[in-house]
Amino acid sequence: MIDQINAILPQTQCRQCGFQGCRPYAEAIASGTADINQCPPGGDEGIIALAYLLNVDPKPLNPQFGLHKPKSVAFIIEKDCIGCVKCIAACPVDAILGAAKFMHTVIASECTGCELCIAPCPVDCIIMKPLPVSIDKEPSVIQAQKNTKAQLAKRRYEVRCLRKENESIEKAERAKQKRAELVKIQLESKAM
C-alpha cells in the first residue's frame, strides 16, 4: 500500500506535507497518521487519486501545508551567485551543479520545483520560474510525462539518499580509524 500511495505522490520531496519526503508521507498516510490532503504539489488531482486508492472521500487541500501552484523550476541568477554550495546541499534530487567559490546552475530538466534551495541561499539569487503549460497535448500524454518525471525524480532522490548514507558511514569509519590511531600513539608514548 505504501508503494501505491508513494507512486501517486509527485516526488518533489518538498517537505511541505510536514514529512521529510514523499515516501515518509506515504508511510504516514498508510498508517493513518497523516491525511490525504497535505501535498500542495499534488493538488486536487493527487488528493482525488489518493482518495480513490484508499476508498475515502476526497477533501480540499489543507491550506496549512501551502497552496497548489503551477509547476516551476529553480533558476540561479548566475551573476549574483557566490558559490556557497548551500543550495547544492539542500537540493533533494541533486539538480544543482557547481563547486565552492564558483557559480552554480540548476539542471532544469531534473529540478522538481521543491523550493528547498531558496531559503539557504545567503544572497537570494535563486528564483522560481514557471514551466510552460502544454495545451496542445492529450491529457493522457501529459499524465504519462508527469509520471515519467516523477519516477525519475524518485530515483534521483533515492540515489542521493544512498550516497549520503554511504558518505556518513565512510566518515564514521574514518573517525573510528583516527581514534584508533590516536589511542595507539597514546599507548606507545606511555610505554616509552
Note down, in words, how this protein is organized:
The protein is mainly alpha-helical and 192 residues long. The protein has three domains: 2-65, Electron transport complex subunit B, putative Fe-S cluster (3-methyladenine DNA Glycosylase II, Chain A, domain 3, Orthogonal Bundle); 72-130, Alpha-Beta Plaits; 143-192. It contains five helices and four strands. It has helices spanning 2-8, 22-31, 43-54, 86-90, 139-191; strands spanning 72-76, 96-97, 105-106, 126-130. Helix 1 (2-8) crosses helix 2. It is globular.
CATH superfamily of the largest domain: Electron transport complex subunit B, putative Fe-S cluster
Separation of the first and last Cα atoms: 64 Å
In DSSP terms, counting alpha (H) and pi (I) runs of 4 or more, how many helices? 5
User: Structural class per helix/strand content?
Assistant: mainly alpha
**If you consult CATH, what is the topology of the largest domain?**
3-methyladenine DNA Glycosylase II, Chain A, domain 3
Shape: globular
List the helices and strands and how they pair.
Blueprint: H1 2-8, H2 22-31, H3 43-54, E1 72-76, H4 86-90, E2 96-97, E3 105-106, E4 126-130, H5 139-191
